[in-house]
Amino acid sequence: MKRIIIITGHYGSGKTEFAVNMAINLRKEHEKVALLDMDIANPYFRSRERQKYLENLGIVVHHNSYGYDITEDMPAISASLKAPLENKDYLAVVDAGGDDSGARVLNQFKKYFITGDSTMLCVINANRPETDHLDGALEHIEKIQVETGIKIDGLINNTHLSRETTTNEIIKGYKLCRQISDRMGIPIVYNTCVEELLDELKMVIKKDGLTDFEFYPIRLYMRPTWLDR
């Protein structure tokens, strides 16, 4: 894994949830970790919404030019995002906007992403209409690569149905990511799983003989409370 980790993916793929989890996990082992919220396209489920929680864990959070509480939907990126990209003491997790138009903002910081010091991972949710089949997922990935000029280095299977997620859903996503990987030569880096399903999923993987299945346990930090009602 490189020092700068760019997380991209389609709207609703769960890329922000993964980015938050990754920043928290990296902070357990590294003193300086920054989460850069570059998603100016989607007004919902943005990592900046957990800024206070993350900062209490020692994670630096950068987002728009105006702060979260003032004009939070203003599509403006703060120049402060450059600081952890330039400071090699920091590990930086970049939460990029969904699809190719959202990822376009990466071009403003491209000089930091083409030095061999960064990696870009694409989150795939096989339950999203646009990426629930091979052709749609391939088109989505290709558009992001064309728009940014940055190659996607790895796939993250984050197939879920929020609280209704089952191991069958996760395996379905793995199979789609395997098809994508075989077609594009992009490895599957992680398969996410909420902690409550981890033991059950390990049993399924062992039974199915999936020796290349890399687990990434996550918690749901971004899920709004109204989903519990």
Number of strands: 8
Shape: globular
- Estimated radius of gyration: 17 Å
Question: At the first level of CATH, what is the class?
Answer: Alpha Beta
CATH topology: Rossmann fold
Number of domains: 1
Mean pLDDT: 87
* Element-by-element helix/strand order: EHEHEHEHHEHEHEHE
Give me the side-by-side strand order of the main sheet.
3-2-4-1-5-6-7-8
Looking at the overall shape, the CATH architecture is 3-Layer(aba) Sandwich
Class by alpha and beta content: alpha/beta
Largest sheet: 8 strands, parallel
User: Distance N terminus to C terminus?
Assistant: 39 Å
The H-level CATH homologous superfamily, spelled out, is P-loop containing nucleotide triphosphate hydrolases
**What fraction of the residues are assigned to beta strands by DSSP?**
15-25%
Task: Explain what the structure shows.
The longest helix is centred in the last third of the chain and has 18 residues. Strands 3-2-4-1-5-6-7-8 form an eight-stranded parallel beta sheet, sandwiched between helices. The protein is built from eight helices and eight strands, in the order E-H-E-H-E-H-E-H-H-E-H-E-H-E-H-E. The C terminus is likely disordered. The protein has a single domain, classed as 3-Layer(aba) Sandwich (Rossmann fold). The chain is an alpha/beta fold and 229 residues long. The radius of gyration is 17 Å and the shape is globular. Strand 5, helix 6 and strand 6 form a beta-alpha-beta unit.
